[in-house]
Amino acid sequence: MKSLLTIFLLGLALAGCTTLTAPVPATLPSDLTSYFWPNKDTSFNYIASTGSGHAITLTSGGAIYDKDLGTDSTVLLNVSLGNAQVNISGLSAADLLGLDASLSIVSDTAPNFGSNPLALSSIASIGKTLYASSGNNIYQYYPHGDSLHAVWQAPFSGIRLIAGRASNLYAFQIGGNGIAIKQKGANWTASVPAPGNINCFTPGDEFGHDHVHFWIATGPRLYRYSQSGWAPVGFVFSAPITAMDEVFDDDNLLVGLSNGALFNVHSDGHRDSLGMLPPPITAIENGFVGTSNGLFTFYGPSLTPVRNGAITALLGSGGGGVFAGLSNDSVFWYFNNAQIDFGTPASVPVSQFSDTGLTPPLFALAGSQLYEHQKDNSWVLRGQGTPTASKWTPGTFTMLKDVPDWRAAYVEDFSSNDIRGYAYWASVVLGTQGSANIQLDGLAYNDVIAVQYTPMINGVVENISAPTYLIYYQRGRGPIRIERTEAGVKTITRLVQ
Question: Phi, psi (5° rounding) for residue 33?
């Protein structure tokens, strides 16, 4: 068992704005679960001392919709009742409690090392969402729980994913003719089959001059797919196409061959020879060309060498830069004539990169496993299973229970390579001798209890890296005041009357 962050009773210091007026019974109130939000269709509004607000919409089926009034974003929480307790799942940094973004609620901090990690074949992202493929299945990666959730079963195997323009994501079949597309906010759909077996694929610009959706290569033959359907482009090349990328305007294409020849193919089908490079050409991205012996850039009339070494993967970055993987397993970033080392993800070369735009943003696929780059230039192994066979499976937070003290949740901190395990424990700090009538912020409430949720590690309170909560509940109404304290900073969120 890893080190646990445990929640325990610290005691309740009633502030000057809080006064008790009720007589003191001898035991806990009956049915503490009735102090949670009611199980019916209704809504509540909350405002925080920071000025932010949340609109809570409840449904009788146990679903809670938490809308951040500042960002206009909504998260879904699910509540389950049973064994005289209230459990809630889906908590994150975006909801009313505001759990740290680095913390994920899990079923146990002891990882399941008996799980079998998926052998991944490809990765790509739409915006901040990362996808991966394994066999004929496509998965979405969830940082909370560090697991891969199956989202679509393709009608073909051998999937490689690639991000396109206009927030599109493509899946194509290496050595086959299958193609599928996912547009942002839509489901995966199979596209028109390719006219031959695909060995190379790159997205086009469907809003460009020729409305090219994507390009494919079947050996030495180049095709493009547009609003008019499939069409061969120019004459057959002298060797198989191994890399291509639409990097110029007007639907022009950089095409690299297995023999090292590089061409610029124009929209009308004619081509310009750009020279010979060390064969084969392995990748083309953002005006950069990777080869078996060096990275070259093409921004002008000639090719300029950037760095020696066999290039295994490229990913263009904002501002005209590129991430590159080398056959010696290392990664570097070339930007504005500077080379920055990005460490070594694994003991095998990187085969593909993906950038989610988060912090840290860069993922790499190496040896069929997913790695995430960290600020300290290290890499962390990610996505070690599915929700039912993961090293850490998602868990729930027990908000209320018919006992004075209980373990509320386990959490994991995935923010660094040193993954830490915690636990939240809850204690009834107002109501151990019956509920009370109370004044909070000058408002009177009756039949109230308060529960404190405190993080600990190795028996010691953790008050820097995880928040402590003190929540006041009113029977039949739910939370009326939430005090969140972390690193000495307290935020008070109260129910709007």
Answer: -65, -20
Cβ neighbours, 10 Å, residue 241: 24
304, burial (CB in 10 Å: exposed 0-12, middle 13-18, buried 19+): exposed
Structure-model confidence comparison of residues 292 and 207, the more confident one: 292
Q: Give the residue-averaged pLDDT of 133-162.
A: 86
51 torsion bin: left (phi>0), alpha (psi -120 to 50), beta (else): left
Number of C-beta neighbours around residue 208 at 10 A:
16
Q: Is the pLDDT of residue 2 over 60?
A: no
What is the maximal distance between C-alpha atoms in the chain? 93
The tens digit of pLDDT for each residue in 19-45 reads 444 444 447 888 999 999 999 999 999
Nearest to 112 by CA among 424, 385, 396, 413: 385
Q: By the 8 A CB rule, do 372 and 64 touch?
A: no
Contacts 24+ apart (CB under 8 A), 354-357: 354/123, 354/124, 354/125, 354/130, 354/163, 354/315, 355/125, 355/315, 355/317, 355/323, 356/125, 356/127, 356/128, 356/129, 356/130, 357/127, 357/128
Under a CB-based contact definition with an 8 Å cutoff, are residues 49 and 491 in contact? yes
Q: Express the helix, strand and coil content of the chain in percent, nearest 5 each.
A: 0, 55, 45
* Chain center to CA of 53: 25
**Is the pLDDT reported for residue 76 higher than 70?**
yes
Percentage of the chain with pLDDT > 70?
A: 87
Distances (CA, A) of 313 to 162, 275, 427: 13, 21, 52
Three-state SS for 32? Answer: helix
d(CA 307, CA 488): 49
Residue-level pLDDT at 104: 82
